[in-house]
Amino acid sequence: MGPLVQFFRRLRAPISRPVCALLALFVLVPALTGCSSGPQMPTVLRAPYDSERVWAVVPFANESGVSAVDGNMVADRFVAEVEQVDGVRCLPLNRTLAVMQQLGMTKISDIRQLYTLMRALQVDGILIGTVTDWDPYKPLRFGAAVEVISAASDSAAQPLDLKDVTMPTTDSRVDVDGAMVAISQASRLFDARNNETLAALDQYGSGRADASSALGSRVYEQRIDLFVRFGAYMLVRDLLEQEAARLAVPLPGGRAEQKPDSK
After folding, report:
1. Residue 188 lies in a domain
2. Which of 43, 152, 187, 203 could serve as 145's disulfide partner, Cβ 3.0–4.6 Å?
3. 170: confidence class by pLDDT, cuts 50, 70, 90
């Protein structure tokens, strides 16, 4: 309001109280208007199921060629993203590890072990995965192949060993000791040097990163654990879209995600 006061003084016109009030309102309205749009809301994932499902995630295997990959950390980031899905809840990784220990499982070797774990955990599905590429230094790189194994009641299919599940297959159902199990798969490589990856990361970070920070969504390029969480979101989205196709559930725009209205 200083420049306006100087303007009136140059006109040698006194500023009355009503004029001062009007000027103060003139200054405040733009500031209030700028805050009215509210915080940016992130995109969220929606499951194609008609009722809420419960998943579990097991530690990731490592086929990246880098020995320092922490399969538990990767699995924990996937737990965090699955838990954010509308229509799916996810067991904490520690609970899954405790039940695996009770069953004497240090890792999952075949699909029958996986089905046994599914029954012991009393979950609707189990997400398993393999890290296929890993570079924790900038520019970050993370690749993974993932599957969600869930109970099914469809026609029979040929038995399938778990080590073959990470490879592309046209079968989405397998018979495990007379019980039907459905499989949905996805795999991706996320490279921070790739513009497609960076564009997807910007969309993911919108509403999740601190807007006042100089880095913004680019914070997900600085730490491998955050980069893995971004990758987990993308791969879980792919799995949900595969599940929708398996169940013949149409998705708006073909995507298992939505952008909530800003509040």
Report:
1. yes
2. 187
3. very low
What distances in angstroms separate CA 109 from CA 5, 58, 91, 204, one per listed residue?
Answer: 79, 12, 21, 34
Structure confidence by residue, pLDDT tens digits, 69-88: 999 999 999 999 999 999 99
Tokens of 249: 């559930």
Q: What is the pTM of this model?
A: 0.78
Query: Is 41 a domain residue?
Result: no
The reply to whether 150 falls in a domain is yes
Based on the domain organization, do 216 and 239 belong to the same domain? yes
Q: Is 72 in the same domain as 31?
A: no
pLDDT in the model for residue 155: 33
- Note whether 83 and 212 are same-domain residues: yes
The average pLDDT across 90-105 equals 96
Within its chain, how far is the Cα of 170 from the centroid?
A: 26
User: Residue 68: exposed, middle, or buried by beta-carbon count in 10 A (0-12, 13-18, 19+)?
Assistant: exposed
Q: Which helix (H) or strand (E) holds 128?
A: strand 125-135
pLDDT digits (tens, 9 = 90+) for 211-230: 676 676 678 899 999 999 99
**Is the distance from CB of 261 to CB of 37 less than 8 angstroms?**
no
Query: CA-to-CA distance for 126 and 128, rounded, in angstroms?
Result: 6
Cα 191 to chain centroid distance, Å, stands at 17
Domain extent at residue 24: 2-35
Q: Would you say residue 262 lies in a domain?
A: no
